[in-house]
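Usage

Read records sequentially. Each one opens with the input sequence:
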Amino acid sequence: MMLEVARSQFPGSSRRVRGFSMVEIMVVIGALAILAGVMIPAISNLIPSARETTSFANLEELNQAVLRFNQANWELVLAAADGSDDEEAIARSLQYRGDRPAPGSAYLEPTLTIVASDNDKIFRASWNGRVFTMLGPGTAGSGLDLARLQAGGSVFNFGENYKPVGAP
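and closes with the structure output:
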């Protein structure tokens, strides 16, 4: 019976025509456009907020390591200076275990990747003389790249005569 309907709609054809009407296609495209308009702004905010959250967590890890080091050894005091040499020196001191390690050392993971940067488009940790502070995007200055501060790199090779910052 269906074959007869198809033939009667299109004389000389034995195929039945299937597909969507133009109205159905336009309704689907409109619905997808509305969904995209709602979802794209929401999704585009996830990556920057994830970077910010990671950076704050890494900054907290650095400052907790400074606190633990200060309690077990001596207070890490290094006058804040331009450049990122002091931030790297403090971070390396927190990674150092030495010949006679203090309880709980190393205070930072020995395989932690430490990268200095002066890129003002990323979150950086700057040493203020006592603790690390956050330099956010749009702020000039150098510091440790907080987004790249993660374990899994190679263990830093401390030289024979290495002394942590402020070591007696």
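Summary fields computed downstream for this record:
- The longest strand covers residues 124-127.
- The helical segments are 2-9, 22-44, 46-72, 85-95.
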